Amino acid sequence: MFEHLVTFKFNNKITPQKQQELLHLLLSFKGHIPGIVDLTAGINVTEETDNQQGYTLGLRVTFENQEALRQYGPHPVHQQFVQSLDGIIDNVIVVDYPVLP
């Protein structure tokens, strides 16, 4: 299996309503994108505010294998989400790694 971790940093144009909409889009990936074993997403509520650095939305996706992760990027559901970030995103951090037994 492979883990895909993403954190999103938005600019000041994002509204709380838009952030909730994005969260619901992320949660809809499971069941619509093949190869997803598990998925969680949420709004950052850390009390470690010194470490938050403006990242307010997080995503964790577990894929069946690396090929499923590769197919995820160009999938139309994922691409629709990526397009919805236009004009509101400042930065994204992505970490992918194999799940060790």
TrEMBL record:
Domain Stress-response A/B barrel: 2-97
Alphabetical list of InterPro entries matching this protein: Dabb, Dimeric_a/b-barrel, HS1/DABB1-like
Cited Gene3D superfamilies: 3.30.70.100
Subunit field text: Homodimer.
Name this polypeptide is given: Stress-response A/B barrel domain-containing protein
Organism (species): Paenibacillus abyssi
